Amino acid sequence: MNAPVLVINCGSSSIKYALIDSDPEAPRLAGLAERLGSPDARLKGKNSSGESFTQPLPDADHTQALNAILERMEGRVPGAVGHRIVHGGEHFTQAALIDDSVINAIETTAALAPLHNPANLAGVAATQSVFPTLPQVAVFDTAFHQTMPPRAYRYALPESLYAEHGIRRYGFHGTSHAFVSQRAGELSTRGAGGWLTAHLGNGCSTSAVFNNQSLDTSMGLTPLEGLVMGTRSGDVDPGLHAHLHRQLGWTLDKIDSVLNKESGLLGLSGLTNDMREIEEAAEQGHPTAQLAMEVFCYRIAKSLAALSCALPQLDGVIFTGGIGENSPIVRRNVLALLPHFGFALDDSANEATIRGKEGCLDSDGHQGPQVWVIPTDEEGRIAMETRHCLEARL
Ligand code: ADP
């Protein structure tokens, strides 16, 4: 299929979009409709010459926003729509052409992602009404991790919780871990091999990928498990919930909200969830920012070390996401905690590889596991999986 793919990531009050050509060099049209359903609703984006625009869409709903997006396509006609769907449960191991049975299966997994899947499905319905003849493909955040073996995905809980209620580890950020590990395999002499990937954005997760298959990852049943994130705690003692309830009288909703929205870098620093501001405050000697940076990096290193157990061989580590792509300090701190892995970081390559650059950060002639920065491209991966899904059906 040569026509462009329209990639849609639909939240409860937002639609992120990108129109992606089959030629990777062709300019992308991309943007965000946000605050939908409110008087401040608006569409922000860039046209093909790279100029930014903001268009007010007062009180627009998802369908009206999609119609406004359609008008920004500059005459380019999409051949298909690829939807990011957060949770595919165990049902979806790859992208799927959307029909009634796929919609039913996504609805069935909504209990596992009550905030995300219903919003993603609302986006599918709105897109179908605006583009009734286009094929629509669902691409799942969880699907890449469906190759994890039971020892990685099972919790040590009663079997019935898994068998009857699907309580297991699923993992997220699958399109990102898949994209960067495949790209490292193309760029590096090591090939597909064994890679540890660290996606560090507002949400953060690590993954162990061997031969393009995920063998383990740090997120679990929900995206709260694992690393310290912008506002999410990551791993805590599972006894914490009962303790907070019994000792402080907190409700489950309050605990959920604190762990998801008030913890992580924000909770530790008491200042911000933004890594740039944490770096600045730490540099100026602010003790809680220094602590937030230390805990953040230590937990990444600990997770990478743990995930190395999943790999038959270690060819390298890959940093990606807003922090992984732009923070030489975080990369240096994390690698300094893993001296026994034999990485050899070139400091000047580390400092220079920011703002969308990809590259290997190794010192010259180094033979051990490599260090890579690969800017992620989740939209590009969704477009590619959409094309593959449709081509496989021809
Ligand atoms: P999302 O997960 O929402 O896609 P991003 O991948 O854009 O988020 O990552 C956002 C994070 O990246 C923020 O913590 C931000 O501070 C951080 N970040 C962006 N640029 C830099 C930079 N130059 N140095 C350090 N951190 C950065």
Automatic annotation (TrEMBL):
Pfam families referenced in this protein's UniProt entry, alphabetically: Acetate_kinase
PROSITE patterns for this protein: ACETATE_KINASE_1
Compositionally biased intervals (Polar residues): 46-55
GO cellular component, one term: cytosol
Region (Disordered): 39-58
Xref: InterPro entries: Ac/propionate_kinase, Aliphatic_acid_kin_short-chain, Aliphatic_acid_kinase_CS, ATPase_NBD
A Gene Ontology BP annotation from the UniProt entry: acetate metabolic process
GO function terms (MF aspect): acetate kinase activity; ATP binding; metal ion binding
Keywords (A to Z) from UniProt: ATP-binding, Cytoplasm, Kinase, Magnesium, Metal-binding, Nucleotide-binding, Transferase
Protein name according to UniProt: Acetate kinase
Origin species: marine sediment metagenome
Phylogenetic lineage: unclassified sequences, metagenomes, ecological metagenomes
